[in-house]
Amino acid sequence: MTRTTTALLLAASLFSADAFSQASQSAPADDFKPSALNQPGQEYPQVNSQGYARFRINAPKADSVKVSLGLGGRGGTKLTKGADGFWTGTTEGPMDEGFHYYNVTVDGGKFNDPGAQNFYGSVRWESGIEIPAHDQAFYELKAVPHGNVQQILFPSKSTGTSRRAFVYTPPGYATDKSKKYPVLYLQHGWGEDETAWSNQGHANLIMDNLIAENKTKPFIIVMTYGMTNEVKWGKIREFKIDPFQTVLTDELIPYVDANFRTLANRDNRAMAGLSMGGMETKMITMNKPDTFGYYGLLSGGLYNPEDLNGKAKPKLVFLSCGSRERPDGVKKAATDLTAAGYKAVSYVSENTGHEFQTWRRSLHELAPLLFN
């Protein structure tokens, strides 16, 4: 088995398909309110104070309607048809806090909920729902100075196309023309694209709030498509890192350094990613240790000392996952790296699985550790 295949299988083993909370279930409280991610003026889907989700779909001629939530779903929430042609149903238990993808199956066909906004995940635009979190203040929109997220198109000779990336520049970037910044290259997971970290992850708001609280050094974040969806789910063994590695290191990084005020050296460049983006991070940082000085795997596999021996020493290795994944492995890996003389930090998001609340919290923990 190749090292690449081993890394892919390890990160895949961290997946948690269950988006439902493990808390004891009881009758849902009758205080449902529209989800924060609904289309304008739409009352459904709704969430209550306990984290239950309720759906209402207009399908008067349908014979069956079901809602599937989260990575892999859980068999779905079956809706019941009313005399008015609307189908209504509530999840069997409370959902984990944070963001979840979902879709609606009507008579065997998969559709999006017309009441909800759509987000790119599972290799398609899917409906999204937000379960309010007890710690959501760190990614809320606040009255603080804001950075800017802009789309860039950069030439790629290796693919014969222009490719897209989104670049977050911190508050003050546009006004102080003399200042240069470190850069984090931040990757999405399988089934997602370069919109994920801004739309689902609120990476820009996390950074704005941390900077306003003087908890992190300001830095640029670059988010691009990692070519992960070129391989279908279930055939991850076939994924090859070489094409994306070329795009990232030979094309995107030089473009960013030429067009943004960056500190263009290893000590001021980081790479991190969630899930399959973490696998990409591991493979590229091992192949190109002179390019990045900081590494982050968010539910995306592990490093061990043997992976890093004989290579340029990283200034930081950050490993994280949700408590519903495999936290013992993450903690042990960080302990082993520390014992071998590396600066390694582990973080476990409590009561979350393989989902964006884990990765939002992980970025919030990682950012203050970078470029110090």
UniProtKB/TrEMBL annotation:
Biased composition (Polar residues): 36-45
Keywords on record: Signal
Keyword Signal: yes
Signal peptide: 1-23
Pfam families to which the protein is assigned, alphabetical: Esterase
Region described as Disordered: 26-45
Presence of the UniProt keyword Signal in the record: yes
Protein name, per record: Enterochelin esterase-like enzyme
Species lineage: Bacteria, Pseudomonadati, Bacteroidota, Cytophagia, Cytophagales
